Amino acid sequence: MICQDFPPAPPLRDFVKCYHLRHFVVSQAEKLPFKPYAPRPEQTLAFYPRGFESVEYVSSGIILQRPRSVIIGQPTERTNRHLAGSEFIVLLVNFQPGALYRLTGIPSHELNDSFVDAEAVFSSAISQVNARLNSTGDYLEMIAIVEAFLIDLVKNNRHESHPLDQVTDLLVRQPENARVLRLAEASFLSTRQFERRFRQRTGVSPKLFARISRLNKSVRMKYNRPDLDWLTIALQCGYNDYQHLAKDYKDLAGVLPTTYFLEETKAPETQFGMRDSSL
Questions:
Q1: Which domains does the chain have, with CATH numbers?
Q2: Residues forming beta bridges with residue 45, ordered by sequence position
Q3: Which of 5, 91, 218, 250 is positioned for an S-S bond with 277, CB 3.0–4.6 A?
């Protein structure tokens, strides 16, 4: 079993941030708990060679099962991920900012809080990838299969990179730096033009993307440094105080910080004694 990140091959580093692979084997009597997902600043291509994943949209209570391969847009609301099957494998391709738009030409805001069957976008090429993934249990071979598909895809990418992609990447890494957005906006002819281009490439407004990035940084800090108190985390992530952080948790994760991390301690990888390398 595994819960681990893998780096992309050099030709793909401009498009792929990392691969994330999860493999769990479950006894018949065992029922896995859900995995809580507060919004993260990411867009993803996911493959499910074994088992199934259902996504629960917490605000509405709607639960949808994902197909064998899906394009996952920018989330803006809390979801819970439910796994099914005696064996579960998911291979996630986490894209660099702007990369999904460059590869598909689909305006990112059309994909927010949703997923699209990848076969509807990439046709028979994805069907072949799914079939090959289903026939192997070797982790590195799985990644090689997906990388071969992505390298072919990159050769025909539809849009060039844009300086906004670098701004977005910096926002993910330093969401507490308020100057980033101000400087980026100043480089455009108008605020409206800036926001339109930003939504086209990330799916959401600059302000919401910064909020999601800040929340995600706080989640990662607490996960990797559980000894840190919430006020320290709030200030290091650019919040005014704990109340400011707690409000974002309520708005975006649906619960207070302490409740969210109590749920995180019950996630499937924790049950198997593993850490979530994506945090």
A1: 2-159 (2.60.120.10), 163-264 (1.10.10.60)
A2: 71, 93
A3: 5
C-beta of residue 267 within 8 angstroms of C-beta of residue 3: no
> Per residue in 149-174, pLDDT tens?
999 999 887 788 899 999 999 999 99
Using a 10 angstrom Cβ sphere, with 0-12 exposed, 13-18 middle and 19 or more buried, the burial of residue 227 is exposed
Give 3-state DSSP helix, strand, coil % of the chain, rounded to 5. Answer: 45, 20, 35
Cα–Cα dist 108/206, whole Å: 13
What are the tokens at 133? 């993934």
Instruction: Note whether 20 and 255 are within 8 A (CB).
Output: no
pLDDT tens by residue, 201-212: 999 999 999 999
Rg (CA), the chain: 19
Q: CA angle 54-59-61, nearest 5°?
A: 45
Q: What are phi and psi of 79, to 5 degrees?
A: -130, 160
The CA-atom distances, in angstroms, between 124 and each of 56, 104, 127, 128 are 29, 15, 5, 6
Give dist(CA 200, CA 196) in Å, integer.
6
- Local structure of residue 197 (DSSP, 8 states): H
